[in-house]
Amino acid sequence: MLVPVVTGPTAVGKTALAALIGGEARVEVVSADSRQVYRGLEIGTAAPSRADRAAVPHHGVGFVDPRERYSAGRFARDARGWVACIAGRGATPLVVGGTGLYLRALFEGLFEEPELDADRRRRLGEWLGGRPRAELERWAGRLDRGFRGGGAQRAQRAVEVALLTGRPISALREERSPAPPALRPWYAVLTLERRRLHERIAARVGRMLEAGWVEEVRGLLAAGVPPNAPGLSAVGYREIVAHLEGRVPAAALEGVIVAATRRYAKRQETWFRHQLRGPVLRLDSGAAPEALARAVLAGYRAAADRPCASA
Q1: What pLDDT is stored for residue 311 in this prediction?
Q2: Residue ranges per domain, the chain?
Q3: Strand 184-191 with 92-96, pairing
Q4: Are 263 and 170 in contact, with CB atoms under 8 Å apart?
Q5: pLDDT surpassing 80 at residue 173
Q6: 310 pLDDT more than 60
Q7: Where are the beta strands (DSSP E) in the chain?
């Protein structure tokens, strides 16, 4: 089954585009956002509004307690169930979100990496953590001929596995990879020139703070959610927790969140350049929203009409 996916970095306009697509076709949205799953985090995760959810059914939004850890594997199991139910109702499941690991888990299955000696990995990680990204990627490429980039964290993991197991992670993946799921993705990746994306991020953070983001976090803590809860580990939430604990002054909070969000968006962009497997349509989200919605629908329908699309 070919499934359309709208993805891209934070603040690029995925949620708004999904709402427009829902106005043009009978779709139900499956959220692939690792923070929108949590209850009580509506402001800081830019969760779809009640009006959006009334207009287009959404699945995977606001149903997990923020104290609970929600894994990519659990998401994949849940999402496959949602997709099957949506298709059974005669609608089109539209996956929307920017959590790359969720997309990989849903469409490719998850590779179970080997267990590494905890002490040796910690000591190696401390040393690797001080290396520049270019050096990490150079070492990863030398130790693992199958390394295809993807950022400093991915490069560090490739080095760790190669040195601590004696085998490259790409070879281990080939041996241990699970059977591919029955769902196949068709990706619409929203992009935006870096300066404009940064402007959008800054404007959105400002709106979130004005809407009561700090009060949202204060209320969660008052309700007994611990400051180190999985739901509060997201970008922005951890900075607000630090502010409420007196570690970030109020005057600096907005700038700290904007900087962290921009770094996160850059990591997402790197992931989407290197890690997506399947047909990809890249769209400039600065175009007219209605035109973007039409382009996504036309591209997906053309792909679904091909004879091999349902294989």
Answers
A1: 41
A2: 2-110+179-305, 118-176
A3: unpaired
A4: no
A5: no
A6: no
A7: 2-7, 27-31, 58-59, 92-96, 184-191, 280-284
Task: Measure the CA–CA gap between 123 and 139, rounded to whole angstroms.
Answer: 17
What architecture (CATH level 2) is domain 2-110+179-305? 3-Layer(aba) Sandwich (3.40)
CA 103 to chain CA centroid, Å, is 8
Both structure tokens of 157:
């993991």
CB 44 within 8 A of CB 237: yes
- 33 and 23 in contact (C-beta within 8 Å)? no
Tens of pLDDT along 72-90? 889 999 999 999 999 999 9
pLDDT at 117 over 90: no
Amino acid type, 287: A
Question: How far apart are the C-alpha atoms of 254 and 236, rounded to whole Å?
Answer: 9
The pLDDT tens digits of the residues spanning 127-147 come to 887 788 899 999 999 999 989
- Over residues 284-291, the mean pLDDT reads 96
Q: Which two tokens stand for residue 243?
A: 């502010």
| Residue 121: Cβ within 10 Å count | 16
What does the pLDDT look like over 194-241, one tens digit per residue?
999 999 999 999 999 999 999 999 999 999 999 999 999 999 999 999
Question: Which of 191, 57, 162, 173 is closest to 109 using CA atoms?
Answer: 173
Alpha-carbon gap, residue 295 to 38, rounded angstroms: 31
Q: DSSP secondary structure string, 114-175?
A: PP--HHHHHHHHHHHTTS-HHHHHHHHHHH-TT-----HHHHHHHHHHHHHHSS-HHHHHHH
Helix pair angle (72-88, 100-108), 10° resolution? 60
Question: Is residue 82 within 8 Å of residue 250, measured between CB atoms?
Answer: no
